[in-house]
Amino acid sequence: MSTFSNPANSLILALSKGRIFDDTMPLLAAAGITVTENPETSRKLILATNDPHVRVIIVRASDVPTYVQYGAADFGVAGKDVLLEHGGEGLYQPIDLNIAKCRMSVAVNAGFDYDKAVRQGARLRVATKFVQTAREHFAAKGVHVDLIKLYGSMELAPLVGLSDAIVDVVSTGSTLRANNLVEVEEIMDISSRLVVNQAALKLKRERLQPILEAFERASRLNNQA
Ligand code: AMP
């Protein structure tokens, strides 16, 4: 681990752009921290805050647990979907922040009779980014599947005959509707969680603790909203 880029007296928070970044800003504000650059307009990957000891790094959502696991970031915010795929090794997960809520679902072409295929014991081709979660879900149901790993735009797979079904995260459902897909099964509710590097939790407790407490208080308010 490089101690030069992440010194002992500073904190690095890993976030992904978009919903997680936007929904984390009010939690940071509750801890008195303001990010002074906008990741949507800046090309910088390391963002300063009003606290010289706290910086935010912008990484891909699925990379957040990895940066935190290896201590390149001290803490981060990641969706339950991403954490289940990562496995959570080396991560302390103290708080469900109740932000970036959505659900993980199975979806198929509007004309495909999913229930019948399952009843008949058909072997289904399922395209997904969430291979672990999908494997566990179908194994628990006793459905035989061939999983096809994709990295993006899963909605396209059933439209062009790559798969019978997809497992993806759904928020409003408008992406599915726009592509003539229907949600046939909800696998689980998803929200984003705070993850903390286990060594940082011990070695940087003094700096981390007040921030974690502010996040916890603010996320309890989110919960009541
Ligand atoms: P929607 O059309 O609102 O159902 O949004 C679905 C699309 O947005 C899917 O392609 C998802 O990959 C993405 N999405 C929506 N909500 C989330 C979330 N909380 N975390 C990650 N991706 C999301």
Care to describe what's here?
The structure is a single chain. This protein has 225 residues and is α/β, with parallel strands linked by helices. It folds into 2 domains: 11-100 and 191-224, D-Maltodextrin-Binding Protein, domain 2 (3-Layer(aba) Sandwich), CATH 3.40.190.10; 102-189, Periplasmic binding protein-like II (D-Maltodextrin-Binding Protein, domain 2), CATH 3.40.190.10. Helix content is 34%, strand content 31%. The protein has 9 helices and 9 strands. The chain has helices at 19-30, 64-69, 80-86, 114-119, 131-141, 156-159, 174-178, 198-203, 205-224, and strands at residues 11-15, 46-48, 54-58, 75-79, 91-109, 124-128, 145-149, 165-170, 181-197. It has a 9-stranded mixed sheet, with helices on both faces. The longest helix is centred in the C-terminal third of the chain and has 20 residues, at 205-224. It is elongated. The N and C termini lie far apart (40 Å). The model has no long low-confidence stretch (mean pLDDT 95). Residues 19, 79, 100, 102, 168-175 line the site of adenosine monophosphate.
Secondary structure layout plus pairing:
Blueprint: E1 11-15, H1 19-30, E2 46-48, E3 54-58, H2 64-69, E4 75-79, H3 80-86, E5 91-109, H4 114-119, E6 124-128, H5 131-141, E7 145-149, H6 156-159, E8 165-170, H7 174-178, E9 181-197, H8 198-203, H9 205-224
Parallel strand pairs: 1-3, 1-4, 6-7, 6-8
Antiparallel strand pairs: 2-3, 4-9, 5-8, 5-9
Helix pairs in contact: 1-9
The structure holds adenosine monophosphate (AMP).
Notable traits:
225 residues; alpha/beta; D-Maltodextrin-Binding Protein, domain 2; 2 domains; nine-stranded mixed sheet; 31% strand; binds adenosine monophosphate
